[in-house]
Specification:
The complex is a heterodimer of chains A (265) and B (155).
Chain A lengths: L4 E3 L4 H10 L3 E4 L5 H6 L7 E4 L9 E4 L2 E5 L4 H6 L1 H6 L1 H7 L5 H6 L2 H7 L6 H8 L2 E4 L3 E3 H4 E3 L2 E2 L7 E7 L3 E8 L6 E10 L2 E7 L7 E2 L1 H9 L24 H19 L1
Parallel strand pairs in A: 1-3, 2-3
Antiparallel strand pairs in A: 4-5, 5-10, 6-7, 6-10, 8-9, 11-12, 12-13, 13-14
Chain B lengths: L2 E6 L2 E6 L6 H8 L18 E4 L2 E4 L12 E3 L12 H8 L9 H14 L5 H7 L11 H13 L3
Parallel strand pairs in B: 1-5
Antiparallel strand pairs in B: 1-2, 3-4, 3-5
Chain lengths: 265, 155
């Protein structure tokens, strides 16, 4: 890891200013991706701006049919939150199955979605549940937030404050883990909310998370696993690597979508 | 260079570090507490697990400066003089190690698991150890050790 200038501002506004002033700044949340990336010298920021001192980023609250999670909430905090478990149990369960206990104790929701790893779990949850991402300057719908491989709608100096999830009447996440890394080889999050049925897939797409409109249409009138009989996903645009070919991933999307719908009840 | 101060195993410590100094480097090289091991250095193997403010952390994936003001416990902080911690004793009783390289991280993760779940099932123990890799034992005796250690911790 190359050395850098470490900064620990005490407010989001100061963090934004630190990012604006840095020639090549990176925001540090839980560090479970950024630090390994810097060790490999795939990133070598001039400044690392640690959000751990910004006390206003770590609360979880439920009100008016939605649950709002501060950007610095760890996966363990989300998994154990009675507010999250009450409003969207599938979201708590998903957070409790990310990585391993040590990763969950430090990794954060804000860090995960800002990184937008194509195999991360949170992007699928955000898109399927129709989440809204609040930053220091605006609100962004999940559909507009995830723009491609490791890419988001965030400006370079823009910082996520919280993520709001509308409660869904039914929701579930099914993940087929890559056996070594435990990342999603494919993960499918399904939800039945006020805006209808949504199916979001992570781990499979070359450009990260995506929705499957054919499955959403099939589920809109009949939210049951049987409604997905015959619904398939094209292997075009899916990842092929040493762990799985694109056609295998496409197959897994169908299997996991059915399992998720069945689990959602 | 930044100065970092924290409490490690109940003792106030401080030192000058680089921003990029990892917590595990600070523990091993500055404090000379070499019980915490570096296995993969890529946050996968768990040999470097310590407790930071009561939560497990892979100390190879945390900067020393992030632990400013924190309360850190390493494997050296578990035993009470010559009396092993119940989890350490359980690993000894059940032959929960062979080469021993992964053991400090295994024990630290196991203590955290037992703190949060006083009577973990075999499945919960195996899931709880997902972030700790052992290349010797096949895990069987480690799982037995953790179950016994959790019982003897007062669960």
């Amino acid at each position: 890891m190359y050395d850098f200038n470490y900064q620990k501002p005490s407010s989001v506004a100061d963090a934004v200013n630190a990012m604006k002033a840095a020639s090549d700044g990176k925001v540090l949340a839980g560090g479970q991706t950024l630090l390994p990336t810097m060790k490999q010298r795939l990133a070598s920021p001039s400044d690392v701006v640690d959000l751990a001192g910004c006390g206003d980023l770590s609360g979880i609250s439920a009100s008016g049919g939605s649950v709002t999670i501060g950007a610095m909430c760890t996966h363990a905090a989300v998994a154990g939150s009675s507010d999250v478990k009450g409003a969207i149990p599938a979201l708590a369960a998903m957070a409790g199955d990310i990585g391993d206990p040590a990763v969950r104790a430090r990794g954060t929701i804000g860090g995960s979605i800002a990184n937008n790893d194509p195999a991360a779990d949170y992007p699928a949850a955000c898109v399927a549940l129709g989440a809204t991402i609040k930053t220091d300057r605006r609100e962004i719908s999940a559909d507009d937030f995830f723009t491609g491989l490791f890419d988001t709608a965030l400006a370079e100096d823009e910082i996520i404050v919280s993520v709001s999830f509308p409660a869904a009447s039914k929701a579930a996440y099914e993940k087929f883990k890559q056996p070594a890394s435990r990342f999603a080889l494919v993960g499918v999050f399904v939800a039945q909310g006020s805006g209808g049925a949504r199916v979001a897939v992570t781990g499979a797409g070359e450009n990260g998370v995506f929705r499957v409109s054919a499955m959403e249409s099939a589920l809109s009138g009949n939210f049951s696993a049987g409604a997905l009989d015959g619904a398939s996903v094209s292997a075009d645009g899916l990842n092929s690597d040493i762990h799985a070919q694109a056609d295998y991933r496409a197959h897994l999307v169908g299997v996991l979508a059915k399992r998720a719908v069945a689990a959602a009840g | 260079m930044p100065t970092v101060s924290m409490t490690v195993n109940g003792k106030a410590v401080s030192g000058e570090v680089e921003s990029r100094t990892l917590l595990v480097q600070f523990i091993r090289e500055h404090l000379e507490l070499t019980g915490t091991h570096v296995g993969c250095d890529t946050s996968q193997c768990g040999a470097c697990v310590v407790h930071v403010n009561g939560e497990v952390a892979k100390s190879c994936t945390m900067l020393a400066v992030q632990a400013e003001g924190a309360n850190v416990t390493t494997i050296e902080g578990l035993a009470n003089g010559d009396d092993l911690h119940p989890m350490q004793e359980a690993f000894r009783n059940n032959h929960g190690l062979q080469c021993g390289f992964c053991t400090p991280g295994m024990v630290m993760t196991a203590v955290d698991l037992a703190n949060k779940n006083k009577n973990p099932s075999e499945q919960q123990i195996r899931e709880g150890l997902e972030g700790n890799i052992c290349r010797c034992t096949g895990y069987h005796n480690i799982v037995k050790s953790v179950a016994e250690g959790a019982r003897n911790m007062g669960g």
